[in-house]
Amino acid sequence: MVDNQINHKNGLRMKIRDLDFYYDNQQILKKVNLNIEKNMITAIIGPSGCGKSTLIRTLNRMNDIIPSAKIKGDILLDNENIYSNGLDVIEIRKKVGMVFQKPNPFPKSIFENVAYGLKINGFSKDRNRLMERVQESLEAAALWEEVKDRLNTSAFDLSGGQQQRLCIARTLAIKPEIILFDEPCSALDPIATSKIEELMIKLKEYYTIIIVTHNMQQAARISDYTAFLMMGELIEFDETERLFTRPRQKITEDYITGRFG
Amino acid sequence: MKIRRIKEKIAYLFLLSVVALLLFILGFIFYFLFSKGIKIISWDFLTQMPKKSMTAGGIFPAILGTFYLTFGAMLFALPLGVSSAIYLSEYVAQNRLVKVIRLGINNLAGVPSVVFGLFGLVVFVKYLNFGISILSGSLTLAILILPTIIRASEEALLAVPQTFREGSLALGATKWQTIQKVVLPNAISGILTGSILSIGRAAGETAPILFTAVTFYKMRLPGSIFSEVQALPYHIYALLTEGTHPETQVAIAYGTALVLIGLVLAFNLIAIFLRNKFRRSKKW
Predict the structure, then answer these.
(1) For residue range B14-46, what is the model confidence (pLDDT) as tens digits?
(2) Which ipTM score applies to this complex?
(3) Facing residue for B171 by CB, picked from A65, A154, A170
(4) Which terminus of chain B has fewer Cβ atoms in its 10 Å neighbourhood, N or C?
């Protein structure tokens, strides 16, 4: 099911076409089709085990590290299949950043965490230029004010919410175009969650955002489009407001009204 | 209800007495060695050459020899062991072949050390023509401790959370960059601890160096890696089985044993110290 009826005014960044995904011989995703609009937040919701994390992890080829994974179908980034043979997975991951479910800063200092992606991608060895970009990224992730006096302390001294914003800063530092958020608030308290949500809304001015969430209110609060996934199938995809107020499918309605899940 | 309490008491007392017995045996061995050996240990004993066909003088060449052999073994085993562990746990798919390889490595750890000695004799001493030498002995010891190092390194690598790897890969790092910059720095303490414990084992082994490296008595210190050496464990064996003055030789053997135990203990203490130091800096 492709959303022919939706008017994507900003144009599309990513297109998922007939995506099948298998672990060993178990099919996790079934013929998923989805359009991702530029500078918008697209949320993927669905009950546990519906394949939403698997789906988002195909978008930066994070599933490559699982040997038993098998994929069919196309994922087009600006009309180029990211799974085609000639493409370098590193280039894709630089363009498509990812923030994970549990904050996963490296056991290094705050500065080193943000500078890591810059260093490995050969950005610059010059401390001043690194510092400039680190500050810029921390500011963009709304963390600078809280950490500017202790950049050289361990990232593990930060609170969970701060750690997650650090992970966002780390992702922003390498200037991706698309950012994937895989349940970024599931390990955070409500205050930290609302900070991340505000941040995402700000970030969409510059980035295309895709978020997986088990929290329907979160999807309703921040996303422009919502995809409802169940048992590996995309059941419904629509503008968020419409999906939550006038769902076309009975099963979507049952899910968002809390009848199951 | 009463019986339950009594059983609890009995179980507790039983376990306590087992531990006490073990500690007592251990203490006794130490006391025995210490009381017999300490008389002979002096600065000269540690730093002088042996004299009068082993009935007097020091054991300096044996200490030096053991140091050369274990250091040499480390030099070969550490890079090989860590590299194999990285390959096995980071690069290769966890399929049946890898399971067989891992089983092989684990079994290698259980092979009696004299078999390694025999292998060293055939391959290093004879076939590669290194002769009875520091080189042959080090290589043989290296093979002996390789499985331990591989296993310790693999465990240390596995203990690094997968989320660190994902975080790094998602930023566009290559696998090697991820291993170098994120995985290894966080596994190094475990790798070092395992390796140092295995040096302790290498230092105390007699059989692997018996045919490949050692000699009972040598006038001169070894001149190159192709020289024969004296070594502490073999020195004890030789003092007790060869020579013409059993009484004086046995006394020297106790002293040598004490030095050897002290050395192994020192290695273990370094390992424990390193582990604690690194453990404190970890917070995940």
Answers:
(1) 999 999 999 999 999 989 888 888 888 888 888
(2) 0.90
(3) A170
(4) N
* Cβ-contact B235, B224 below 8 angstroms: no
3 state DSSP class of A76: strand
Q: CA A137, A141, A147: angle at the middle one, nearest 5?
A: 80
Tokens of B58: 């020091």
Contact B167 A65 (CB under 8 A): no
CB–CB of B172 and A121 under 8 A?
yes
Q: What is the rounded distance in angstroms from the CA atom of residue B213 to the CA atom of residue B229?
A: 6
- Tell me how far apart the alpha carbons of residues A78 and A68 are, in angstroms, rounded to a whole number: 28
Residues in chain A: 261
**Cα pseudo-dihedral A220, A223, A227, A232, rounded to 10:** -90
Look at residues A201, A188, A195 and name the one whose alpha carbon lies nearest to residue A142.
A195
Contact status, residue B147 vs residue B106, Cβ threshold 8 Å: yes
Alpha carbon dihedral B190, B194, B196, B198, in 10-degree steps, equals -170
User: How far does the CA of residue A119 sit from the closest CA of chain B (Å)?
Assistant: 10
Q: Per-residue pLDDT tens for B75-112? A: 999 999 999 999 998 888 777 888 898 899 989 888 89
Other Cβ atoms within 10 Å of B201 Cβ, number: 17
Q: What separation, in Å, do the N-terminal and C-terminal C-alpha atoms of chain A show?
A: 23
Which chain A residues are closer than 8 Å to B169 by Cβ?
A: 62, 65, 93
3-state SS track over B242-268: CCCCHHHHHHHHHHHHHHHHHHHHHHH
Note whether A100 contacts B166, CB cutoff 8 Å: yes
As a whole number, the mean pLDDT across chain A is: 90
Q: Give me the residues paired with residue A16 across strands.
A: A34, A75
Is residue B123 less than 8 Å (CB to CB) from chain A?
Answer: no
Which residue on chain A is closest to B166 by alpha carbon?
A62
The answer to whether B280 faces chain A, any CB pair under 8 Å, is no
